[in-house]
Amino acid sequence: MAIQWFPGHMHLTRQAIAERIKDIDVVIELLDARLPGSSANPLLAELTGHRPTLKVLNKQDLADSTRTPAWLAWYNAQPGTRAIALDASERAPAQRLLAACRELAPERKGLSRPMRVLICGIPNVGKSTLNNSLLGRFQAKTGDEAGVTKQEQRIVVADDFYLWDTPGMLWPRIIVEQSGYNLAASGAVGRNAYDEELVALELLLYLQRHYAQALLDRYKLDLPLAQLQALHDDELLTAIGKKRGAVMSGGRVNLQKAAELVLTDFRSGAIGAITLETVEEFAAWLAVGQAKEAERLARKAEHEKRRKKRRF
Ligand code: G4P
User: Residue 8 C-alpha to ligand 1 middle, in angstroms?
Assistant: First the structure.
């Protein structure tokens, strides 16, 4: 499934980040703890010149707590990187953010050398919620001083800790097919950019394999576990639609309505705490995506070469 969705003005955003990054000590990338690989933006490292990075696996309350530690360990093993998990119920996120940033840039402290942090993340990952909870305790400054553009926001987290919100949005080119589905399921992608039925079917396929009991419990399906796992995904969506009353006149199941129900339930955590990718799964998907991307680029280069030859 190709997702054609580029929110905001990417060019302006890239320019603004390139400008701001000169004065930044640590980059915080907010990730969705339910899809810690797919919600990361590979473009970011290019733009931030490999600044020390703190990966915050946000919405950990919605993610599978048995899978989050493996993702944290994986990110913590990357050079110049620390990772923590967070959710909106955290009373004092500032303290944990500050501590993690200090580990990455220990020389930045005190009023004369304040920690300057840039926070980034894909849409819907919880950036505004986190910013607001940081703002709750401290004052904020918005674009009314020199060097602060209109789209930028500077949050004073502590006397010697400033957080800059990314202006606009950065959206990566999605080269991993499964990432497209997972991003759509999570709610990161605008509704018009994907087919809800397709996304729900793909989600059910994964849940059947990894969270079958949670599906049985949520939808009170009168089936043995093994039988549920053997259903085709469209049969499963039909069974869920029937159970939840998504039925049209004549008794046919309204699959669009059933798909919307499943996606809403996944997003709210009603099916359970779920993570849609393990470190190993994501690595395998990424390898396939990168190979396909390399082929695409080679084809494009070949095409360009032939076009140039024809012109001369
Ligand atoms: P963004 O700025 O990155 O686009 O995301 P935003 O903070 O607007 O959050 C997107 C949605 O995710 C919001 O729900 C928000 O309440 C929810 N959210 C943020 N952080 C967490 C978290 O740690 N755990 C959970 N479970 N949810 C979180 P919404 O339904 O779109 O809006 P609202 O009804 O809450 O206002």
Answer: 19
With a 6 Å cutoff on the Cβ, whether 68 touches ligand 1 is no
Q: Which domains does the chain have, with CATH numbers?
A: 8-165 (3.40.50.300), 195-268 (1.10.1580.10)
What pLDDT digit, counting tens, does each position of 264-300 carry? Answer: 999 999 999 999 999 999 999 999 999 998 999 999 9
| pTM listed for this prediction | 0.91
8 C-beta closer than 6 A to ligand 1: no
- Point out the ligand 1 atom lying closest to the alpha carbon of residue 268: 26
Could you give the C-alpha distances from 202 to 69, 114, 121, 287, in angstroms and in order? 25, 46, 24, 20
Rounded distance between C-alpha atoms, residue 278 and residue 281, angstroms:
5
